[in-house]
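To: structure desk
From: M.T.
Subject: fold request, one chain
Message: Could you run this one when you get a chance? Sequence is below, nothing fancy, just the single chain.
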Amino acid sequence: MMDILTLIIVLLIILVTVGMVVALIIGNQAAKKQKAMAIIKGQNLSQDSASKNARTAQDKRREQISRKLQESSDEEKKARKKGFSMKSRLQQAGMSISVKRFYLFSFLFSLVFLGIVTIAGAPKFALPFLWFFGFMGLPRMFLKRKIKKRQKKFLEEFGDALEAMVRLLKAGMPVTEAIAMAGREFHGPVGEEMLMIYDAQKIGVPLPEATMEAAKRMPLTEMQMFATGIAIQTQTGASLSEVLMSLAGVIRARFRLRRKVLALSSEAKASAMIIGSLPFLVGGGMYFINNEYILLLFNTTPGLIMTICGGLWMSIGIFIMKVMINFKV
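Reply: Done. Structure tokens follow.
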């Protein structure tokens, strides 16, 4: 009874600690976003009660753009919430299979994976966890990797596609035909998304809505900026070629900055990967060298308490390291 009570108290302390860490991180992100939106609106953060004088045309334009960006931000939040569904993830990965077929392939793969680890001599108590990892873990990791690879390839060619569209617009071509031409000239994710925008617009979907749907399939800031620029141009009647030219320059600058940040943070990421994987490597090595020694962590009550506490604290540490090395540009 005392061991169970101790275990419950330890778990409660760990859950409270995890909640405080997550709340702190979410609060910092919300504060940064609020500050960025305030800068866009042209507010002075040091003055809470600024005098309301007659606004100039530039102030009105800023407010209009900030309002549109806020609407786009709300749409992006909804898209991210929806993006957690498997159907949206398959669309982001560019895979045309259904959700049922994906789960069927995952189940078959989990059986093959379970057979391999069983032949390799995995302990019986770990087989259910290994099967679950093969069914829910590895396929989702593959899908996430495929999404990142597709997004990376999209960013590499998106700036060139925008500049090609600008040249076509300056030559007098309509915006829909410029999008279709960019879709035919560029291969890979950029061409696919542009052709999907053109096809949607051809069957009657308004161009701003078609670009917003493309931003949901490709949840990147650059694509969100493109959709927002199209929407602002549709409402205000500004020159789309100038908007896209400025957007292409911003995207290229962001791409260069992202490459620079990736190069500077590669050492920190490698260190975090080594630190995070070291306990698992040591535990696996100890199991093959002297399994009776390591099995005390799973066969005894103090060992289980230590394993649960250590696993949760390691998870917190890995999560904090991931947040620290995940530089967003």
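Reply (cont.): The chain is about 85% helix and 0% strand. Let me know if you need anything else for the meeting.
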